[in-house]
Write a structure and sequence with these properties.
alpha+beta; Jelly Rolls; 2 domains; five-stranded mixed β-sheet; four-stranded antiparallel β-sheet; 3 helices
Length: about 190
């Protein structure tokens, strides 16, 4: 009986300490331009579908205090929403601010506007917040693709050059060692 009470007390303690922070999640598969309100101790999340596309995000708080902005992978978002998670990772963030902008390509992230006290270093939630958000998708331009291609090409060429230098040094030093050993053997044989 005593053990059951202890388990019940621990469960109740964890339940109360987890809080009741709840957020809204929106599918942002296409362009969005809207104004929304986030309640006190809550967040809004936008699921981005930018694979093969360029995405531009612009957000500004029009009423209320500073908030936190995060860009998560799906696993990082799961940690963010888990009240028992011990740490929180992110791809990009900006805390204690009223504006945020992001531009990237080939992204499949969850973008969060946080009006909750989840991060120890982030903004303190004091009430509801109203924000304007604009999410725009565009096809990657030839320039974007060219930059990506050239970056990959330079990395491959750089790796090939390093490999060629290492191979040349090895080919130079190994035969030299064998020649020196052969010379020593000849001298011993005389």
């Amino acid at each position: 009986m005593k053990a059951r009470l202890i388990v019940l007390a621990i469960t109740l303690l964890f339940t109360l300490s987890a809080g009741n922070t709840v957020g809204e999640r929106y599918d942002a598969a296409s362009d969005i331009a809207t104004t929304r309100e986030i309640e006190y101790d809550s967040w809004d999340a936008y699921e981005l579908h930018g694979s093969g596309k360029k995405v531009d995000i612009s957000v500004s708080i029009v009423e209320g205090t500073s908030v936190d902005f995060y860009l998560f992978t799906e696993d990082q978002y799961d940690d963010y929403t888990n009240p028992f998670a011990t740490q929180m990772g992110y791809e990009a963030n900006k805390e204690i601010t009223k504006t945020y902008s992001y531009s990237g390509s080939n992204v499949n992230y969850v973008f969060v506007i946080d009006n909750a006290d989840i991060s120890q270093s982030g903004a303190t939630s004091t009430g509801n917040v109203t924000y304007e958000i604009e999410i725009k998708y565009s096809e990657m331009s030839i320039t974007d693709n060219l930059v990506s291609f050239l970056t990959s090409g330079f990395c491959i060429c750089g790796g090939a050059i390093v490999l060629a230098v290492i191979t040349s040094l090895w080919l130079y030093t190994v035969p030299k060692q064998y020649k020196e050993r052969a010379q020593k053997l000849k001298e011993l044989g005389k």
